[in-house]
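input
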Amino acid sequence: MNTLKEYAAKVNERLEQIPAVVEDGRFQIEQMPGLLSRSMRYSLSAGGKRLRPSMLLAAVDMLGGRTEDALDFACAVEMIHTYSLVHDDLPAMDNDTLRRGRPTNHVLFGEGQAILAGDGLLNCAFETMLDAACAHPDRAADYMLAMREIARGAGVTGMIAGQVMDLFCERGHTGDADALEYIQYGKTACMFIYPLRAAARLCRAGEGELQALTDYGRAFGLLFQATDDLLDVTGVEEKMGKTLGKDAQSGKLTCVSAYGIEGTRALVARLHAQALSAVGRFPGDGAFFKTLVDEMVNRTI
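output
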């Protein structure tokens, strides 16, 4: 069984090749400007565990597929995730100046360029998946189904929907537990659920396996966000590599604001059990995914 670090290394190696590196100051028709290349790569190379793409690759492994065939889809997921962070840090959104221990993209490149870097990463993600589909015409249908899953996870009923409601509640509108679940399902869980569903599509998995991955992704994603909410209150800024306490300052609707610290810890325990139940439907109890959710409960970064 590959570890998270081993999957992440594969993703990082491939990400070194996409998007293309362009020399600074170079402007040529039908070629990416050097400034755009540099700003996109700045955020893409900021580190992180590469959790979402690694989970996609691990699911492909678990379902008996070839991770080599899924690598570009994994990289696309990471590009989409990175674009969302670039935009999330903007003054009009979370207004953060620190991400993974480094200045955020807009601090270094300016707001306009940061917006365009995020746009570039999103578009490059779909170009990468389309290139993979075109290169394997015999599997184009599988690749298109996988791409549709990722698009839905990142789209107007997924991540973007969650972000919209997050901002809506932050701007003085009241929110309850149902609103909180909508926000955290969209902005966080969907980018775990749908990459896992994409893995199932790439492997032509059955409906039972597709549902098990969906259930796991939902529980894991909500668990991830609940622990993130806890760490925003109880974490150490130097370890986290980002500004803490901003959720309370900006009036965000979070697990801690809705349930309190102990209530959030109880929620974490329930979601942990749900994730284990879902992954237990796979042969060998899905060892990689069991380990992952166990570690998530005790995360400090």
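quick obs: The chain has a mean pLDDT of 91.
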